[in-house]
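HUMAN: Would you supply a protein with fold tokens?

ASSISTANT:
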Amino acid sequence: MVYEPQAREMTCAVCGRKLDSEISCINGHFVCESCHNMAPADFIEQQCITAMDTDPVSFGARLMRSSKIRVHGPEHHFIVPAALLTTYYNFRGDWRTKREMLAEAHKRSDMLPPGACGYHGACGAAVGSGIFISIITGATPVATLSWSQSNKATANALQLIAENGGPRCCKRDAFLSIISTVKFLDEQFSIKLPATLAPRCEFDRLNRDCRITPCPFHGNDRQLARASVH
């Protein structure tokens, strides 16, 4: 951090407001007090509203890269549908609907408990895939095709996560869920989002439970050879 002797006008890197401050990072970025104290899920939603990205994998990585996002945590349950909804509606140029659907995804993701991967046998990141498909198709408990599609999206993501083994890694499982859903969008709806399907992990040193080489995103092994996306 850089501490100036006098305050100067700076633009918050999160909300875009212009405020006077003496403090910024070494690269000149400033985050206002309101955004600094924002809950992780609220931060994710705010970032998504203003983002113009169309690659859900790289955008998901950008969200996870923030200091507001923990190595592990239930905010990853929201990151998956949030990254997918943001890039999907940006790709379609429908920014008004994006804001509305992000709020709905935020509400639904908050219902998923921490540790669901181990205690319930259903990783919240994978359920985030189903939340995304459910929202864009308008699925309900009494729907027909959309009901099936949203459950299939969750099942595909869960299968991929299970094949890559434990213990938990919220970053890995978020990547796998997003990638699985990108393929599902292409197969079921002929929607091809410009996604980076072989991202390189930036978080291994932060995760004491990291499996290192068995992970498809670790090091230079950037191909999903061990991750059979269905």
